[in-house]
Write a sequence for this structure.
């Protein structure tokens, strides 16, 4: 019996070793985090890693320093090498028994990880004076690495990307390199005169929990439901989309399965004739959640007009996916955002064309929300093909109860952990100087929860990279949406408060305030140079030890006066300065907790606030709304940090997604 068990155990071990060898064979000898043109971190042990056969020795050599590593049972090797003097260029040689790699044009300086959502992702071309900035982006001492966007339900080993020398060509490639990261790195390099490496690691629309570990989220208890669903999806197998909605569609949408309703050649003669806008009542789902597909044929001239065409569908509730001649052209779950999908060359053709649109409707008055003339195809010569009127329609999913609905309805990665596993794990444990972070918009409706989320995420990153409490600098959200005439509670103000609390309480963190920038109608403001340079001020003062002002006026204490409150500030270098006719935007409240606009008067490093409507003020707030009239600065031009003196319940205190 023992002999039989021993044989079975031996066979199992052989199988595991064979499987491991097969896995290692698919992994690179040197991680793509290391390559020609990279920057390595000065002043720390430089960590190199990759994969080889278990037990094989790997040698790393650079500037007279050498280190040896042995591949473990999983094939991973890691060597730590003393960093040579800043500068370069250096050559790195990595040698194993069967192969070797030589890295050229390697510099030694400071490496910064640049994370967040779309405002960190936004490329230079979409910023103020973007074209001129791109032309001037000739900085050979700055090196760029963009981590390819990738979601995963378990840790990813290998990142996709490569190091590039900063130039007008490389900052403009693809969607463009992060403008905030570029301006941050440019100022650091100009001040420090050392090479700067910038790693763009971000994805638009993503919440903080997508960038966190499952261990941290389990401890917070708020995410047990989505984490359980991710485990179910992982065990089930299939595409890892990072979106609960997309997984749900894969599971239930008949139209996107084997009988592909987007195909140009599909016979839709049996479909019902419907009127668009509208269409759902004819299919029997006017008032219930549902997925319906709509198809329309139209004819285009020969030859097609030159230039890019745009498909316009107006606003849609909740989510649409559009196909032209069977090819995907766009999708959105942002209800208020009118759809305008640019069409790549070769998708449209002279003569017959077929447009197919899948709409997931949740509300009784959902679906196509805009007027009929909003549905149109705009050709390259700006001629218009109307798309309203008669279409063909078919019901794919009647999602009324008890049919299950997805946990969330975004069609981009918003699932917890998927970007920590997919885009942060494969970068670690690269030696870094620190990180910058521009995110929060996606968590604004859960701002109170963000008070614990963001510190936990910072802890996750620091634990993963194993370099202690490295610097972590946070962008406070800029102004957005239109000004509100009356003071009161506000989710964006509470999110800024959560960011400020994190910067104040988490070791080696700081806040770059941008409340004096922004656009009421655009969540992606163009003023990215200000953002990047204020982050650089945080780094220069707090990490590099330069004796420079880096923060704007910050609330320090409150003193109650007869009928007024005295608010004292720190970081008032050059004195408190009001930009505009009067100090704004302060409000006060009494014991009834009703807020009223306040008169404000600057006295030295303090502001006295009062209101005739509040004879006995108890609390004050400054710049407490999404788009405030924030006029208080210090003498060097840095804006005051929005704040409140009360701790009364806010609008996001109990808001949780699950």
């Amino acid at each position: 019996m023992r002999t039989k068990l021993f044989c079975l155990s031996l066979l199992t071990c052989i199988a595991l070793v064979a499987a491991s060898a097969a896995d290692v064979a698919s992994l690179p000898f040197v991680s793509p985090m290391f390559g020609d043109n990279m920057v390595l971190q000065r002043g720390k042990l430089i960590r190199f890693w990759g994969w080889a056969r278990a037990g094989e020795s790997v040698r790393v050599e650079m500037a007279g320093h050498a280190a040896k590593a042995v591949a473990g049972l999983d094939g991973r090797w890691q060597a730590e090498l003393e960093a040579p003097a800043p500068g370069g260029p250096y050559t790195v040689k990595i040698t194993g028994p069967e192969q070797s790699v030589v890295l050229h044009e390697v510099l030694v300086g400071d490496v910064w990880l640049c994370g967040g959502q779309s405002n960190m992702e936004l490329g230079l071309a979409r910023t103020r004076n973007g074209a001129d900035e791109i032309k001037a982006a000739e900085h050979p001492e700055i090196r760029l690495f963009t981590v390819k966007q990738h979601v995963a339900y378990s840790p990813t080993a290998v990142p996709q990307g490569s190091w590039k020398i900063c130039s007008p060509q490389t900052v403009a490639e693809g969607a463009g390199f992060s403008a905030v990261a570029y301006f941050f790195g440019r100022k650091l390099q100009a001040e420090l005169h050392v090479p700067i490496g910038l790693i763009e690691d971000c994805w638009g629309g993503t919440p903080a929990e997508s960038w966190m570990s499952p261990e941290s989220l389990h401890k917070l208890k708020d995410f047990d439901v989505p984490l359980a669903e991710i485990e179910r999806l992982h065990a089930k197998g299939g595409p890892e989309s990072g979106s609960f909605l997309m997984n749900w569609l894969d599971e239930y949408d008949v139209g996107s399965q084997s009988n592909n309703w987007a195909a140009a050649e599909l016979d839709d003669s049996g479909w019902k004739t419907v009127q668009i806008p509208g269409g759902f009542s004819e299919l029997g789902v006017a008032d219930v959640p549902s997925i319906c597909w709509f198809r329309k044929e139209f004819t285009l001239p020969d030859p097609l007009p030159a230039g890019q065409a745009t498909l316009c569908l107006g606003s849609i509730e909740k989510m649409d996916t559009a196909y032209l001649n069977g090819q995907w052209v766009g999708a959105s779950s942002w209800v208020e955002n009118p759809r305008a999908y640019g069409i790549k060359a070769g998708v449209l053709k002279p003569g017959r064309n077929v447009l197919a649109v899948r709409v997931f409707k949740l509300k009784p008055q959902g679906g196509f929300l805009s007027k009929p003339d909003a549905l149109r195809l705009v050709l390259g010569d700006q001629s218009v093909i109307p798309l309203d009127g008669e279409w063909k329609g078919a019901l794919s999913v009647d999602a009324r109860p008890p049919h299950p609905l997805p946990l969330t309805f975004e069609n981009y990665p918003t699932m917890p952990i998927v970007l920590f596993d997919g885009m942060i794990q494969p970068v670690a444990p690269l030696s870094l100087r620190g990180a910058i972070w521009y995110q929060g918009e996606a968590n604004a409706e859960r701002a109170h929860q963000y008070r614990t989320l963001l510190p936990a995420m910072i802890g996750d990153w620091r634990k993963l990279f194993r370099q202690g409490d490295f610097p972590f600098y946070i962008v406070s959200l800029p102004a957005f949406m239109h000004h509100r005439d009356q003071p009161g509670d506000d989710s964006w103000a509470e999110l800024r408060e959560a960011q400020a609390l994190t910067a104040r309480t988490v070791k080696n963190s700081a806040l770059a305030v941008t409340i004096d920038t922004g656009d009421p109608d655009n969540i992606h403001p163009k003023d990215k140079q200000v953002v990047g340079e204020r982050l650089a001020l945080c780094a220069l003062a707090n990490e590099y030890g330069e004796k420079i002002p880096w923060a704007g006026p910050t609330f320090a204490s409150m003193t109650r006066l007869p009928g007024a409150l005295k608010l004292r500030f720190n970081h008032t270098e050059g004195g408190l300065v009001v930009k505009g006719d009067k100090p704004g935007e302060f409000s006060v409240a009494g014991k009834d907790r009703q807020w009223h606009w306040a008169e404000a008067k600057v006295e030295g490093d303090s502001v006295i606030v009062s209101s005739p409507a509040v004879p006995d003020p108890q609390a004050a707030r400054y710049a407490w709304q999404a788009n405030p009239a924030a006029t208080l600065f210090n003498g060097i031009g840095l804006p005051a940090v929005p704040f409140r003196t009360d701790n009364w319940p806010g609008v996001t205190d109990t808001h949780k997604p699950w």
Remarks:
- The longest helix spans residues 2-25.
- The CA atoms of residues 171 and 177 lie 5 Å apart.
